[in-house]
Amino acid sequence: MTGERLSKAAVADRALRLADEEGLEAVTIRRLAKELGVTPMALYWHFKNKDELLLGIADHALADVRADQTAGDPWQKRLRTVIETVVRVFQEHPSLPGLLHAVDKGQTESFNRATNDTLALLTDAGFTVEEGYWVAMYLLNGCIGMVSAQPGCPPGMSADREPEWRRQKRLQLEAMPADRFPMMIELAASYRVEPDLDHYYTFYVDLLIAGVEAMAASR
User: Fold this and answer.
1) In 3-state terms, the chain is what percent helix, strand and coil (to 5)?
2) DSSP 8-state class, residue 71
3) Which residues of 116-125 are buried (b: 16+ CB within 10 A; e: fewer)?
C-alpha cells in the first residue's frame, strides 16, 4: 500500500466505516491493519494506540461540520445549515453517537472548530458564550435523538419485514382502551403508510430552530 493511500485520513475513514458496519468494538489496530492490508506497525505511525485512533475517527467524521462566519446570511439560516450537516453526518455514521460518548471530543480539532463556529452564531443571536454552549449541546443531543428516533422499523430490520412490523404496530395501538388512549388510537393510522422521512427531518430541524429563535427573541 502506498503512503498516499495510507494517509491518516484514509486510516480514519476505513476505521469509521468498520465501526458503522460492525460496531466500535470491532475497531482494533490489528483488525484495521488487516482491512488495510498492512502490518499493525504501519498504523502506529498515525495513531499510537486505540484511544488516539478513536479520537482520529471522531475528528474525521465531524470534518464537514462548519459554519461560515463571513457569510451574509442571518444567524438562523447559518445555524440551520450546521444542524442539517450534523444530522446528515449522524445518518451516514450510526457509530458516531457511541463514539462521541467514548472519547473526549474536546480533544478533536473538528469538534472544537464546529463548537467555536456555533458559539459565534449564537452570540450573534444575543446569547452569552456560556448560554451559547448550553444551546449548542442541546442542539447536538437533539440531532442525536432525531436520528436515533427516526420513524419506521427498528434499526437492523430488513426492508421486506417493515410492512408487517408497521401492521403489528398499528394493531397494537388500535387495541388500546379507547376511553383512556383515544389519541394513541388515532396515531395508529400513521402506521398504514411508510413514514415521510423528509417531512420528519424538516419538521424536527424547524422545531429546534424555533426554540432557539424564541429564546433569542426574549433577549
Assistant:
1) 70, 0, 30
2) -
3) ebbbebbebb
Contacting residues for 166 by C-beta, under 8 A, at least 6 apart: 153, 191, 192, 194
CA–CA gap between residue 185 and residue 20 (Å, rounded): 36
Query: Interior CA angle at 215 toward 212 and 219, to 5°?
Result: 130
The HSE-up count of residue 125 (CA atoms within 13 Å, CB side) is 30
Based on its alpha-carbon atoms, the radius of gyration of the chain, rounded to whole angstroms, reads 21
- The C-alpha angle with vertex 25 and arms to 20 and 29, in degrees rounded to 5, equals 95
pLDDT digits (tens, 9 = 90+) for 182-192: 999 999 999 99
DSSP H helices, 149-218, are 162-174, 182-187, 197-217
Q: How many helices and strands in the chain, by DSSP H and E?
A: 11, 0
Q: Which residues contact 10 (CB under 8 A, 6 or more apart)?
A: 36
The Cα angle at residue 49 between residues 46 and 52, in degrees rounded to 5? 65
pLDDT in tens, 28-48: 888 999 988 888 888 888 888
pTM of the model: 0.84
45 SS3 class: coil
